[in-house]
Design brief:
This protein has 602 residues and is α+β, with helices and mostly antiparallel strands. The chain contains 15 helices and 33 strands. The protein has three domains: 2-113, 2-Layer Sandwich (Alpha-Beta Plaits), CATH 3.30.70; 130-317, Sandwich (Jelly Rolls), CATH 2.60.120.1520; 338-597, Rossmann fold. 26% of the residues lie in helices and 30% in strands. The strands form nine sheets. Strands 6-16-13-20-11-8-7 form a seven-stranded antiparallel sheet. A seven-stranded mixed sheet has the order 23-22-21-24-25-33-32. A five-stranded antiparallel sheet has the order 1-5-2-4-3. One of its GO terms (molecular function) is metal ion binding.
Length: 602
């Protein structure tokens, strides 16, 4: 009886593995085999499921030395290569169908493969313009440089969430990866660093390079820094980073999916120039160990306290680089060219007209008010007047019965739905609110301003919200965040990915990469729903089933809504342009940047 049960379980597992093998072959083109090889594929778990190199190494290396771990961006599979076929077979017997690491705590499904993916996103080729010089300084010079910095005593030091920092020359602002060029610090770069530039010039790497900004970071094991590109308009080319006290793996990523992990040894110098400086993000994953590929195979390296010296030279004038998609100078100039008429046309076609078409379906998906917004509404005294600027289907107009609430929206169809509920609403545009100055005690603007097509119009909308508020009135604004994964926590928007999105279900989104909006003479990328945003100005699909067609054969219409998703600190910087408000607080709430303002004067 027991053997019969085991055979049944074995057949069930084989059936699952065969199904998963077909998915792997479809995703990667790699054919699975029944023959024992030194290469294994994890068929049902990868980067999209939260699997990491660290986790794979921890469990698989217990059965023998590993040569490679290959993770593929956007796919639910991963590849592991052992030194020998025998150790791979041992891992297969002990892990396949037994180790619960896949999604929903299901077991990993393994298969042997004859070869590994050739065009993996992870490559050993350095990005163009990137140079690493090992042993750039001696041990004595390392001690000298470390002695220059005292993190606990210097005036220009600060403690960030992830590390301790000291600035020289100019303070580097992490909210926008920039500096205030009009506010130099009292202390410039220590003269003891001058030997570095002479050495670089003698080695032929730079021509008379003299930086004027230095940031010294102290990383404890387990700390890191998010992927970023240093702002183009802030600094010249190149940027240098000297690693002291410990080694580290720095991750370089390109928007095409390429991923290059670079092992920066202690006392090595990293030179980021040209494409590597302007077009690739770099960051350090927060963890206590790094997996490094050596001639002997993969090895785990324990991190120690690391101190990095990052040298930059302030840029005079505008950036002239050719990497326009990542260049803030170029994008700003393009945004300025998007004059109000063009922006208005873009909003008309890809915001206003679309909400008229999807109003009923949109309303059906918007029932539950967000708790932090409800708390804000409930904070008002009895008899207060509250405005909902962009009220949609009016879900917030039923909160706090003892406050008088009035709402407006640009969508007449949504306003009709609100009027059917007996709510106090009118149809108007957030850029021109038909209310007197200082006529309401408070305002909420939830998921509205991100539909405006340039920064001038977004600022005008905020100015209108402030105008209609009374002195000491409060304004709460929510906008969609570009970063939908904060502090390693996915937003509810991303968490719906596996439930609501199937690859075979999205032929239109897979085929359409971008759309030219003729009315505005611009091209905008189409965002793939339930995924991290790659661009700030995007068209977000809304699928609407045709109710006039029989259920079994319902077709879908695809509507593309315009969004400007906000970077961290962008909404705050926009509000700072107003001189009659106080920023009470800013926070991140489930994929949204939120700001609470208080009006101080007319």
């Amino acid at each position: 009886m027991e053997n019969g049960h085991s055979r049944k379980q074995g057949r069930k597992l084989n059936k699952k593995v065969k199904k998963a093998q077909h998915i792997v072959e479809k995703q990667t083109g790699i054919t699975c085999t029944n023959n024992v090889t030194k290469n294994l594929v994890i068929c049902n778990c990868g980067l999209v499921n939260g699997l990491s190199e660290d986790i794979i190494y921890h469990h698989f290396s217990a059965y023998g030395p590993l040569e490679k771990i290959i993770m593929i961006t956007g796919e639910s599979c991963a590849f592991v290569s052992f030194k020998t076929a025998d150790t791979a077979e041992l891992a297969y017997r002990n892990i396949n169908g037994k180790l619960n690491l896949a999604q929903d705590d299901k077991p990993l499904l393994l298969s042997f493969v004859d070869r590994l993916p050739e065009n993996s996103n992870c490559t050993n080729d350095l990005p163009s313009g990137l140079t690493v010089i090992d042993n750039f300084v001696t041990e004595e010079e390392e001690e000298l440089l470390l002695s220059l910095v005292c993190f606990d005593e210097q005036e220009n030091s600060s403690t960030l969430k992830h590390r301790q920092v000291v600035h020289y020359g100019y303070e580097f602002r992490y909210d926008n990866n920039n500096v205030d060029k009009d506010k130099p610090l009292l202390h410039g770069i220590p003269k003891e660093c001058n030997f570095l530039w002479d050495r670089l010039q003698k080695l032929g790497y730079t021509d008379n390079f003299r930086p004027d900004q230095l940031t010294v970071n102290k990383y404890q094991p387990g700390q890191g820094i998010p992927p970023h590109i240093d702002t183009h308009s802030a600094f010249d080319d190149p940027i240098l980073s000297l690693s002291l006290s410990s080694s580290i793996v720095m991750e370089f990523r390109h928007e095409n999916g390429s991923h290059v992990p670079i092992f920066l040894k202690q006392r090595s110098l990293l030179i980021m120039s040209d494409e590597s400086r302007y077009n690739w993000t770099h960051g350090i994953t927060p963890r206590k160990t790094d997996i490094v590929s050596l001639e002997s195979g993969l090895k785990v390296v324990q991190r120690c306290t690391r101190v990095s010296f990052t040298f930059r030279k302030l840029l005079k004038g505008e950036c002239q680089c050719r990497f326009t998609k990542k260049c803030d100078t170029y994008l700003k100039n393009c945004a300025d060219e998007l004059v109000n008429h063009s922006a208005s046309q873009l909003e008309k076609i890809h915001v206003h007209e679309i909400y008229e078409n999807i109003a009923d379906h949109f309303s059906d998906t918007r029932h539950k008010p967000w708790p932090n917004v409800v708390d804000f509404i409930n904070s008002f005294d009895v008899g207060s007047v509250l405005m909902d600027a962009g009220c949609g289907n009016g879900k917030y107009l039923n909160c706090h019965k003892n406050v008088f609430k009035v709402g407006f929206d640009s969508s007449a169809s949504l306003i009709n739905l609100c009027q059917e509920k007996g709510l106090n609403v009118i149809t108007c545009n957030c850029l021109y609110i038909p209310f007197r100055d200082e006529s309401v005690d408070g305002v909420i603007s939830i998921a509205v301003i991100h539909h405006l097509a340039n920064s001038e119009r977004r600022l005008r909308a905020i100015r209108e919200l402030v105008r209609v508020s009374r002195i000491n009135g409060n304004i709460l604004i929510y906008v969609w965040a570009k970063d939908q994964c904060k502090d390693q926590q996915k937003s509810s928007y991303l968490k719906q990915d596996r439930r609501n999105r199937k690859k075979d279900d999205l032929p239109q989104e897979d085929k359409i990469q971008n759309v030219t909006v003729k009315e505005s003479n611009i091209t905008l990328p189409i965002h793939i729903n339930r995924t991290q945003f790659q661009h700030q100005d995007v068209l977000v699909p809304w699928k609407l089933k045709d109710s006039n067609i029989d259920d079994k054969s319902k077709s879908e219409k695809l509507f593309l809504r315009f969004y400007h998703v906000f970077d961290e600190g962008e909404l705050e910087d926009l509000c700072k342009k107003l001189d009659n408000i106080e920023i009470v607080k800013t926070y991140y709430d489930q994929g949204n940047w939120c700001i609470l303002l208080k009006k101080l004067k007319s």
